[in-house]
Design goal:
hydrolase, 757 residues, globular, 7-stranded mixed sheet, S8pro/Inhibitor_I9, alpha/beta, 41 strands, Subtilisin-like protease SBT1.8, 18 helices, zymogen, serine-type endopeptidase activity, 8-stranded parallel sheet
Amino acid sequence: MGLPSVLCLCAAVFLLHSSLFTVSAKKTYIVQMNHHQKPPSYATHGQWYSDHLQTLTSAAPDSVLYTYDSAYNGFAAALSDEEVESLRQSDSVLDVYEDPVYTLHTTRTPEFLGLGTELAPSVGYSLQELNQASQDVIIGVLDTGVWPESKSFSDKDMADVPARWQGECEAADDFDPKIHCNKKLIGARFFSKGFNLVAEFNETESPRDGDGHGTHTASTAAGAQVENATLLGYASGNARGMATHARLATYKVCWKSGCFGSDILAAIDRAIQDGVDVLSLSLGGGSAPYVRDPIAYGAYAAMEKGIFVSCSAGNSGPAKSSLANVAPWIMTVGAGTIDRDFPAFATLGNGQKYAGVSLYSGAGMGSKSVELVYIQGVNSPSNYCLYGSLDPAIVRGKVVLCDRGINARVEKGAVVRDAGGVGMILANTADSGEELVADSHLLPAVAVGRKVGDMIRQYVKTTQNPTVVLSFGGTVVNVKPSPVVAAFSSRGPNTVTPQILKPDVIGPGVNILAAWTQDVGPTGLEKDTRKTQFSIMSGTSMSCPHISGLAALLKAAHPEWSPSAIKSALMTTAYTLDNTNSPLKDAIDYSTSTPWAHGAGHVDPQKALSPGLVYDAKPEDYIAFLCSLDYTMEMIQAIVKRNVTCAAKFRDPGQLNYPSFSVVFGKSRVVRYTRRLTNVGAAGSVYRVSVEAPPTVVVRVKPSNLVFKKVGDRQRYTVTFVAQKGVDPLHNGFGSITWKNEQHQVRSPMAFSWSKQ
């Protein structure tokens, strides 16, 4: 196939139950088959699946929506409850489960990441050479489709499409492959059979993006450089993706009401066959066992083919254990801020001026103060400014203070405007803390943090005639501190496999400028009639494609590296100090962040291009990992799609050769892991170990020095973790193990927790 494929799975989505939709008598189910039982009389597994279904049930032949080849052993079908029960009685059927539904997790970043002009001499090649090599790398983006007319998808000066590419652009009423695809956008498909069955379909079935999310993520990963990009005057400059010369293939799996697992799995299946090198999914569905997670299944099959898979961690922070996409063969990406901001100000009638953020671009309010109201009552939705909750008689002509939460931030502004309000202050609560996210509101609006919000709430409650004037400060850069971990970014610990530390890294995910659809305005609201070529969005959906694009650059620089080697390079070179040289902060309250929030740290692509050492893992390592879990042999074989044994079973999932450590102390106070490092730096490299550990744990590493005589040499080391006696089971701690020499620092974060026994 040539270069291994990389799938960029950056559609961050929350899991919903299909009962939320208008449901027919039949529902979509994913059926997992024991493919080894296929009789030799059948030429293909698909023929056997269809006949087997009809033999056991009354299902019509067209009940089968998809048959999976590369990503999964089985099929998706429209089935009644009775048909499901009949299938479950068959020895050839391993599992039948209802199709899960997901929703999306929802200019300056190249410079912020050190990719603005030139690479450091230590990398060994120029940015121009790297861009040239990246033309052979193909990024597959599973999302809401693509707006192909965007300048971000220009193929100017690009060479011919790699001959190994097997994909295509699919035609639709509003999508002409001859016009809309080129040497940059080389694939555009859509998958809707699962969604179409149970949801009322009111969209054109097409690769075209009517939402904006998919265009934004695709251009973030690999958009061409576009000069004079801006959102209504904000963030003006040159917009570009991470891998400007990489190819893009988009797979539309998300529609207005969600993204079905059967469609996602079909898209991964197709992308593997098409020949992508990176998969980017900004979607997810919470944490589920790998045997019931279509994304985990598909990502494993992609990894086996050499495809790097990047997924968003989710937007359910700051709650603990809120992660999605935690399989160890997936790069799980959290979100942080960049050093650009969009200041706005609320000046109260008492003279106090408070800072916030905004992307409002209209005429503004002028300098005259306006009455400020905050409508708070028992069991009243008015303080959240929900639809229909505001009385026009109370808010007309006034600025309304709205609490953040429940409904979308931009929707609150629309509610205020429709009720006659002239402005809004959007105030954080404890759930979002001090995190500030800028939005392109339909009326003058300023977002403020919890502390400022509380002071403004108190002002309104204690002042007889409270007033305010809102003003807007445009765009500023070199903001400090940055990066800061976004409060919305989902957190560990990992509930599926506590011995695997997640998320893996954080990347830019707050107030990100990228290409946009022309079907909707920048807020995405139907009543927003503004049109813009670019929009600014926030979410782990935005951070995921950054990492997908960086993975494409690493694949271009090191085509022989496995997906786990690329992941290791990005993780072990990540940084944990911000631009004030202080430990990374958490936006919820600006306390020090932990690896449960930022993983290994914030990605540093220049260092990742030359990491020195990598923690590599092959499919056999992941099989040994799966064997250490409480899965049957049939379950394991279903994931890996072949007959395997557990002869090499790990005694503990934490034995996987992973670039980080998550140590769970149970009955024993002693945990011991061995790791294997591969030299991708210079021959004759010598490294010494450095350990940072909490006072509750003693960490011993043997040997303390590693010598790599040749490039490609592998060396092992063993770490013994000893917990102090009498530690509270609710306690946790963090640290790191770093292998150092004059050229490199190969850092692995450590997280410690205690289970109740």
